[in-house]
């Protein structure tokens, strides 16, 4: 769905989004009240001082026709005035004293100054239209997405089947076995464009959705000139890649509901809403600030009913589709996190384990190529036999990257060059692992 073609166009699904969210030609088609939009324009003018039509179009992501209708309404209401042309070009608009007072009142109610929000009713339909559970992941897709990654075929197939299920996934196993790396790579199965609103309007509350740290913007070259807005997709939507959001031990329960900042008077979307139509990975499960059972219980209804109930405060709630792939990743025994009844709801539990020697060699070879270091089978045998076998250490996927990197750090410090030596690797080994014999 929405895969970008070589010429920058989109297939028929883009047309479906355009039918759902066409460029509004008048205030009624925005799905927002005229007074609401008038207040938002006043806040922009209060923030910027004086603006012409093109600047207002850019700031509010609305059509020129819609802005002209709002400006006419505000002029009749005595809130704005025309201040003449800028350089003989466009008309400029500013607030009257009545308008400044109205802007201050509007800012006291809501600190939001941005693009016009998208109505929540249409947003529900948009989430369902661009669902991440739209298609079928095949074995070929999995091997393409994980090309060059050292991962057993059986595990690759388990992941692929789990992705097709639409259910939550739990990945567990020892630290350093690649759980986070493999999980984050799953987004490669969905090389697609979706549309994300800058913000949504839930009655009078404006909740910001678009987050540049989560949403990677794509160039939507098919959009028309912003001042000739009579066809195309609503400019309140941003064309983005499907999002991937990873959170770890810093996660708190407050981040999973709509948050209101009384100082800024702004509503912030919960993390799972920002990850909608994408991938949400909860890393280091069991290390969060709340009890695992409390966190897992938060997901029972969304996982089973594919809908989430968000609290806006003051007894107000909003129901939205829960459309994402939810992945739990943990170093702990899943039975220590939840009982079997809850784990059944998750569906797929995938165990990541240590490497076999031949798999470790493949990872070692990849890291030497990446670092530009000659592959030396004798040196690798020295590491495997002299360190791992002798000390009974498991073969962990992240070790080659770390050990080779530290050995190169030492070589550069000693102003050396050429192949790494056994002494370089021995130094790296002793600095990488805690030396228990020195703690006694």
From TrEMBL:
Gene3D superfamilies: P-loop containing nucleotide triphosphate hydrolases (3.40.50.300). InterPro entries: AAA+_ATPase, P-loop_NTPase, WH_DNA-bd_sf. It comes from the Bacteria. Residues 165-352 form the AAA+ ATPase domain. Keywords: DNA-binding. This is AAA family ATPase. It comes from Metapseudomonas resinovorans (Pseudomonas resinovorans). The lineage of its organism: Bacteria, Pseudomonadati, Pseudomonadota, Gammaproteobacteria, Pseudomonadales.
């Amino acid at each position: 769905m929405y895969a970008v073609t070589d010429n920058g166009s989109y297939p028929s699904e883009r047309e479906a989004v355009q039918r759902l969210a066409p460029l509004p030609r008048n205030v009624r088609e925005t799905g927002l009240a005229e007074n609401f939009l008038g207040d938002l324009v006043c806040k922009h003018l209060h923030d910027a001082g004086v603006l012409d039509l093109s600047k207002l179009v850019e700031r509010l992501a609305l059509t020129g026709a819609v802005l002209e209708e709002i400006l006419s309404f505000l002029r009749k209401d005595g809130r704005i005035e025309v201040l003449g042309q800028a350089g003989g070009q466009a008309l400029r608009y500013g607030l009257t004293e009545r308008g400044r007072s109205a802007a201050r009142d509007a800012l006291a109610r809501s600190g939001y100054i941005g693009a016009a929000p998208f109505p929540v009713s249409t947003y529900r339909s948009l989430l369902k239209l661009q669902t991440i559970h739209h298609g079928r992941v095949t074995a070929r897709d999995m091997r393409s997405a994980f090309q060059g990654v050292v991962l057993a075929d059986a595990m690759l197939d388990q992941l692929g089947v789990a992705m097709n299920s639409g259910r939550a996934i739990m990945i567990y196993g020892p630290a350093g076995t690649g759980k986070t790396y493999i999980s984050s790579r799953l987004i490669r199965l969905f090389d697609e464009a979706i549309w994300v609103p800058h913000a949504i309007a839930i009655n009078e509350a404006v909740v910001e959705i678009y987050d540049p740290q989560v949403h990677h913007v794509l160039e939507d070259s098919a959009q028309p000139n912003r001042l000739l807005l009579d066809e195309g997709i609503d400019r309140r939507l941003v064309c983005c890649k499907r999002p991937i959001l990873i959170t770890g031990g810093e996660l708190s329960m407050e981040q999973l509901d709509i948050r209101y900042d009384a100082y800024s008077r702004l509503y912030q979307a919960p993390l799972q809403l920002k990850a909608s139509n994408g991938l949400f990975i909860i890393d280091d499960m069991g290390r969060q600030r709340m009890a695992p059972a409390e966190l897992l219980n938060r997901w029972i209804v969304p996982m089973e009913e594919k809908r989430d109930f968000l609290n806006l405060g003051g007894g107000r709630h909003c129901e939205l589709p829960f459309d994402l792939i939810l992945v739990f990743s943990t170093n702990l025994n899943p039975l220590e996190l939840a009982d079997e009844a809850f784990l059944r709801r998750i569906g797929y539990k995938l165990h990541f384990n240590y490497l076999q020697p031949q798999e470790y060699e493949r990872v070692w070879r990849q890291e030497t190529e990446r670092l530009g270091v000659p592959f030396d089978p004798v040196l690798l045998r020295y590491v495997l036999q002299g360190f791992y076998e002798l000390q009974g250490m498991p073969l962990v996927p992240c070790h080659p990257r770390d050990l080779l990197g530290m050995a190169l750090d030492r070589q550069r410090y000693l102003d050396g060059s050429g192949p790494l030596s056994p002494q370089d690797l021995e130094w790296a080994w002793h600095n990488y692992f805690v030396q228990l014999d020195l703690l006694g």
